[in-house]
Design goal:
By secondary structure, this protein is an alpha+beta fold. It has a single domain, classed as 2-Layer Sandwich (Ribosomal Protein S5, domain 2), CATH 3.30.230.10. It contains three helices and five strands, in the order ββββαβαα. The chain has a five-stranded mixed sheet with strand order 1-2-5-3-4. α1 packs parallel to α2.
Length: about 130
């Protein structure tokens, strides 16, 4: 039985996707993708599946994702799904389609939150000085 495993990251969210032969089920944290909320996050996760089209017939996709927020998890999931599908199908045309559509489908986003600095309320904000 052929299996492909891939991971995707976005901020602090980490997703691991497993692709194997099956009946065409897509599950995120053991729940069907159709029940995933909010709708915007579900739409983001659908993108690599829609681009693949008929290549995913008879393939089960299982995604485990943790950490981060809702949209960070959605971005991490879509990256993991796209990487796993490319690894499973070994199709160069699919890889080119993903890269033309959006590079972040195959490349995890390296951006992270800037740490807070002393004497300020955040990463860049500082206490204002008063000279009077």
């Amino acid at each position: 039985m052929k299996v492909a495993v891939a991971s995707g990251k976005r901020k602090t969210a980490i997703a691991r996707a497993t692709v194997r032969d099956g009946k065409g089920r897509i599950r995120i944290n053991s729940k069907p993708l159709e029940l995933h909320e909010p709708a915007m996050a579900k739409a983001k996760i659908w993108e690599p599946i829609q681009i693949a089209g008929e290549l995913i017939e008879g393939i089960d996709i299982e995604v485990n994702v943790k950490g981060g927020g809702v949209m960070g998890q959605a971005d991490a999931s879509r990256t993991a799904i796209a990487k796993a599908l490319v690894g499973y199908t070994e199709d160069d045309d699919l890889k080119k389609k993903y890269l033309l559509y959006d590079r972040s489908l195959l490349v995890s986003d390296p951006r992270r939150k800037l740490p807070k600095k002393p004497m300020g309320r955040g990463a860049r904000a500082r206490r204002q000085k008063s000279y009077r």
